[in-house]
Amino acid sequence: MRRLLSLLATLFILAVAVPALAADCQNRGLLDPMYCDNDMDMVADLAPAGMCKDPSTLVFTYTPVEDPAVYQDVFADFQAHLKRATGKDVVYYTVHSNSAQVEAMRSGRLHVAGFSTGPTGFAVNLAGFVPIAVKGDADRFQGYQLLVVVKKDSPIQTMADLKGKKVAHTSASSNSGNLAPRVLFPPRGITPDQDYTVVYSGKHDQSILGVAHGDYDAAPVASDVYERMVRAGRVKEGELRTIYASAGFPTSSFGYSSQLCPDLVEKIVGAFHTYRFTDGMKKAFDDADRFYPITYKADWAVVREIAEGTGTSYNEEGLKAMIAKEQEDAAKKAKQ
Q: Which residues form a coiled coil (predicted)?
């Protein structure tokens, strides 16, 4: 409830502070009223001179898919690179939910970030987030598949065998952990909530560990998270078995707040494009060695299609629904 009240207060403040240039906006598309998209690239245009932000310290964070402390260390070298490129101090801001991350950028407390695949749409439409890159190499960006995992000795062999079972989805906004399964599974004869009981685990690693420990019969998860957990020894190789794998999706998007001043944005973009991953980052991110350039309009089309197929709206009502679901799931877990 506290988080919801905080969001509502933030929305009110921002609504009052909608820029005066709103009357000059020729195209907004699906963006919140405080943003404009005159170049029609589906992301917010930069704030005009005199209204943009030039903070003395840049705040950065990565999606709260897994243990935040681990990724704070992983991104330490990139933060140092970003500091050199911009001349700004850079601090890591720990978030524990997708909605909190969106709220932080919308309220101006977060300037540069990596958003998970599904919540990227909320960040773009509601927080003025401009995605510019995903992890990759010189030739392509890094993608992932939706996997359905079960224990190796489970009697479940096919998707049809999930009927009547308890299946862990991650969170309401997650692409691979919830949205994609609701679109991709019904054509294969299995409908979430109807044919099996959905239990929200909160995160991909919790779904995977829950299956391994026997708390859930199966779980749809992102392949990159699963593979990292196997390499790290958090799940033994061969302990789980895959019964389904989808086509590929882009991984987490990286970018900046459109409310930052153009000169600063240019330096941030340059930092992403010139940075090369440390050995620790390569190990953490499946041998990706750089941030590969992307656009939200083109490279997130398949993700938006999945969202539309589930009736997910990347707007204020959709965000409120996501917050309410996160709170409901947290309350359920607290009682367990």
A: none
**What is the reported pTM?**
0.76
- DSSP string for residues in 118-186: TTHHHHHHHH-EEEEEEEE-SS-B-EEEEEEEEETT-S--SGGGGTT-EEEE--TT-IIIIIHHHHHSG
Sort residue 324 into left (φ over 0), alpha (ψ -120 to 50) or beta. alpha
Q: Residue 286 has what pLDDT?
A: 85
Return the CATH number at 193. 3.40.190.10
Tell me whether residue 279 is in a domain.
Answer: yes
Q: Which two tokens stand for residue 100?
A: 């909190």
User: What would the DSSP string read from start to end of 60-119?
Assistant: EEE-TTS-HHHHHHHTHHHHHHHHHHHSSEEEE---SSHHHHHHHHHTTS--EEEE-TTT
Are the C-beta atoms of 98 and 173 separated by less than 8 Å? Answer: yes
Number of domain units in the chain: 2
The whole domain housing 239 covers 144-249
- Tokens representing 276? 């090369």
- Distance, in Å, from the CA atom of 303 to the CA atom of 293, rounded to the nearest integer, reads 17
Q: What is the tens place of the pLDDT at every residue in 97-143?
A: 889 999 999 999 999 999 998 899 999 999 999 999 999 999 999 89
Residues 115 and 188 in one domain: no
Determine the distance from the C-alpha atom of residue 323 to the mean position of all C-alpha atoms in its chain, rounded to a whole number. 14
Distance CA 310, CA 96 (A): 24
Are the C-beta atoms of 120 and 104 separated by less than 8 Å? no
- Kindly state the tokens that stand for 102: 């969106």
For 71, the token pair is 């990724």
Asked if 171 and 326 touch (Cβ cutoff 8 Å), the reply is yes
Residues 28 and 112 in one domain: yes
Whether residues 49 and 184 fall in one domain:
no
DSSP 47: P
